[in-house]
Amino acid sequence: xxxxxxxxxxxxxxxxxxxxxxxxxxxxxxxxxxxxxxxxxxxxxxxxxxxxxxxxxxxxxxxxxxxxxxxxxxxxxxxxxxxxxxxxxxxxxxxxxxxxxxxxxxxxxxxxxxxxxxxxxxxxxxxxxxxxxxxxxxxxxxxxxxxxxxxxxxxxxxxxxxxxxxxxxxxxxxxxxxxxxxxxxxxxxxxxxxxxxxxxxxxxxxxxxxxxxxxxxxxxxxxxxxxxxxxxxxxxxxxxxxxxxxxxxxxxxxxxxxxxxxxxxxxxxxxxxxxxxxxxxxxxxxxxxxxxxxxxxxxxxxxxxxxxxxxxxxxxxxxxxxxxxxxxxxxxxxxxxxxxxxxxxxxxxxxxxxxxxxxxxxxxxxxxxxxxxxxxxxxxxxxxxxxxxxxxxxxxxxxxxxxxxxxxxxxxxxxxxxxxxxxxxxxxxxxxxxxxxxxxxxxxxxxxxxxxxxxxxxxxxxxxxxxxxxxxxxxxxxxxxxxxxxxxxxxxxxxxxxxxxxxxxxxxxxxxxxxxxxxxxxxxxxxxxxxxxxxxxxxxxxxxxxxxxxxxxxxxxxxxxxxxxxxxxxxxxx
Length: 574
Ligand SMILES: *Cc1c(COP(=O)(O)O)cnc(C)c1O
Known about the structure:
- The structure is a single chain.
- The strands form four sheets. Strands 5-6-7-2-1-8-9-12-13 form a nine-stranded mixed beta sheet. It has a six-stranded parallel beta sheet with strand order 16-15-14-17-18-19, with helices on both faces.
- Residues 562-574 have low confidence and may be disordered.
- Strand 6 (93-105) and strand 7 (111-118) form a beta hairpin.
- It has 20 helices and 19 strands.
- By secondary structure, it is of the alpha/beta class.
- The protein is 40% helix and 18% strand.
- 54% of the residues are buried.
- It has helices at residues 25-40, 126-129, 140-160, 179-187, 197-204, 224-231, 233-241, 252-258, 268-277, 292-295, 298-307, 326-348, 378-387, 404-420, 434-443, 461-467, 480-483, 501-522, 524-539, 544-556, and strands at residues 6-10, 44-49, 57-60, 66-69, 80-90, 93-105, 111-118, 168-172, 207-210, 221-223, 249-251, 262-265, 283-285, 357-362, 391-396, 424-429, 446-449, 472-475, 490-493.
- Residues 24-25, 28, 363, 432-434, 437, 459-461, 464 line the site of pyridoxal-5'-phosphate.
């Protein structure tokens, strides 16, 4: 293993479907960054927390009401426990922390270690032991204690492991921003008293931050009184002395922005939105990408192996997919669709028709994502479906346990399904995870995305679809603004409709009726050409190899220290 020079720190990292320490897009992206680094032999190590009960296991009752259970998974069989035990002060007592390692292996055998911090040790009190039980569970104190563990624990862990060459700490979202406090201790010039702005300037040289949240309400904020209890006087004094806290609260995004030499958003549009939200910060944009080897189904991997043999090492070769004969593409997709149909049959007992046009939509069930928008006018949808021999829709996605609107959205989808059966056959698969993500994005005929703009920072599931020649049908938001070539890589739901649900649904129905279903049912080569275009234009660009290359050049390289022009003590608005 190479000595890592970049530490990638994330509240969740999806290293494998059976390591249930992730909830969704943020963790999957983190996993894809790590997998791309392993492929490239890039000297990186990653740190996250070990959630013994995962996020949660979702089940739906007959009415579509979501139920949650702990998600137990095999730790010992998949992760290696390391010897050092760390001691991290949290809420006035010392918490003992164990580290576990998962080795992510790249195409050429290079390894990126992912370290999982675990507080479930006998010497800890019950509250401390439960700190690494569940992802995104608990109250504000639980959350701040977890973020303290992640931030302060990361610096301690990498030190204990002898990773002394770490030059850059990459905070993936604000959850890990408390690592700044540990670094201030390490880089301070005077042995006593609070740190000074020069110390912060030194810390900034080592920090890079990726923001993922386009709405102010989505950024983690904690009461400073609570921070005082959890972090202790020294850390809170440091926060105040360096203007890293806002009046009476601690905003993790602001902390990360003020303490990083380079900040980026995750798509070009999200960069614009973030610059408007934080007018004093210089926010770059590095659009997300997905890991080709992970998200390409077996039939498409075989197709690429035949035509573009080095595609795993060099994702740019996918540009040449434009020369792949359409019948071979059709055959690979038929196999991927068959695999999805088998998986759905096994999980739900419902048998989908391989010849029917199948829309896929799986994403977190929350209001702004509007997962049920296509069901807004069920009579019109059924009438369109009848014109073209029927359609099928496969839905998936979990709602956060306290997101009642999200849960209601799932109930709505499950509730309207029986009345539509025959014309529009609807399946809602339970417990959406990486394995379902791979099956759905490769086996659907089109990937549907209807969030309310500009809430979708990037989105990555449509990129997975592109890896498998599945076109997108999406509103203009997130990455799709960059990936949309009308009738070439997919279809866009009228950009001018904004957030108006009714007009967006109307545009969606019109596209299905006038353009997409006619192509699919009567001009199959035209449809196959769009599938091929999705690979050549989008899979070749929206991949994790390109994303990592951009991070390496723009964010990790030493010259990127010049790009953040704000003085360290400048107060950020927002
Ligand atoms: C890819 C993926 C996501 C993120 O996709 P979005 O388009 O951002 O919704 C979320 N959850 C799982 C399980 C995934 O595989």
